[in-house]
Design goal:
With 323 residues, this protein is α/β, with parallel strands linked by helices. The chain contains nine helices and 15 strands. Strands 3, 4, 5, 6, 7, 14 and 15 form a seven-stranded mixed beta sheet that branches. Strands 10-9-8-11-12-13 form a six-stranded parallel beta sheet, with helices on both faces. 48% of the residues are buried.
Length: 323
């Protein structure tokens, strides 16, 4: 079967197409004929060898932790009824950039008939994260919510979920294409955080008080600046570090500002809730309340181009491989 491997830690060019034997389902496992492989910004950092939160895979490795397709075979102890079903499958940290992938049966999620596989992948991964973040931040109707990286996979869904909760949204991103998308998704105001005075624009949009809730997926200087304009009594929720550095807030400074900081460690507690959140997201999508933004797709052989699009910040929404 066709696969793409990371042959050395480094740039996107380290993703090299190749061949591998077809996998065989062991006890408690299934083989999925992969139609869609998802990817995340974190996976680009793992490939680069720059990620601080995950163990480095042993080289060479096939990246990709989430796929969608049909179950083609089942191993011992697995209900034969899984065969032929459309599923999303978690493969762990690796194994997804391939024509076929092995997954444990407990890592399967049936795809509702009304959803396409690409949409289901986006809603399962980024959607469940966004749902968890919104639940943790306890958004109230009428509040102002600032969403960083508002045109990204998670950010684009956060904009929509905040609007659904009755909030007023400021979408922050870089460049006119991304700002236009944030507006299209329901952001009442947009700001370009590559401009020096972007936080002043946030304050102006929120009547001088600042946002009641900030979703910080960027970190670094942008995250620190966003914290400083968070409204007194607000919540500052950290979920990403696309700048390379998660925002760390001094507890004394947070107390002085009267801001509740929900740190990036919140993500470590998401696991037990992901299925419930994914189901909620897919139900909301079926009801027309949210839609995943799939900005670009690539064939398997162009996995390097897909990683480059994410890493160079040119991608809109979710980036997927179609196999």
């Amino acid at each position: 079967m066709r696969v793409v491997r990371v042959i050395e830690f480094g740039g996107p060019e380290m993703l090299v197409p190749g061949e591998a034997p077809d996998p065989v389902a062991g006890p408690g496992q299934v083989v999925v004929d992969v139609a869609v492989a998802g990817m995340t910004f974190v996976e680009t950092q793992i490939r680069r060898g720059a990620d601080r939160w995950h163990a480095r895979p042993e080289l060479p490795y096939v990246p990709g932790g989430l796929v969608a397709g049909r179950v083609s075979s089942v191993g011992a102890g697995v209900d034969p009824a899984w065969a032929g079903r459309r599923v999303i499958a978690g493969t762990g940290e690796t194994g997804g950039f391939a024509e076929r992938a092995v997954a444990a049966v407990e890592e399967l999620f049936p795809v509702p008939g009304e959803l396409g596989l690409p949409e289901a992948v986006a809603l399962h991964s980024d959607g469940s994260t966004a749902q968890g973040l919104v639940e943790g931040a306890k958004i109230r109707p009428g509040e102002w919510v600032l969403v960083e990286a508002a045109a990204g996979g998670v950010g684009s869904l956060l904009v929509q979920l905040a609007r659904t909760a009755g909030a007023r949204v400021v979408g922050a991103a870089r460049g006119s294409r991304k700002l236009d998308l944030a507006r299209e998704l329901g952001a009442e105001a947009v700001v370009d955080y590559s401009e020096p005075a972007w936080t002043e624009q946030v304050l102006e949009a929120t009547g001088g008080a600042g946002p009641d809730v900030v979703f910080d997926g960027v970190g670094g200087e942008i995250g620190r600046a966003a914290f400083e304009v968070t409204a007194r009594g607000g919540r500052f929720s950290v979920h990403g570090a696309s700048s390379g550095e998660a925002t760390a807030v001094d507890p004394e400074r947070a107390r002085h500002k009267g801001v509740e900081v929900i740190g990036i460690e919140q993500l470590f507690g998401f696991g037990p809730h992901l299925v419930r959140w994914a189901e909620q997201m897919m139900a909301q999508a079926a009801a027309g309340l949210v839609r995943p933004v799939i900005g670009q797709t690539f064939p398997l052989e162009r996995a390097a181009d897909a990683h480059a699009a994410i890493e160079h910040r040119t991608a809109l929404g979710k980036t997927l491989l179609l196999i």
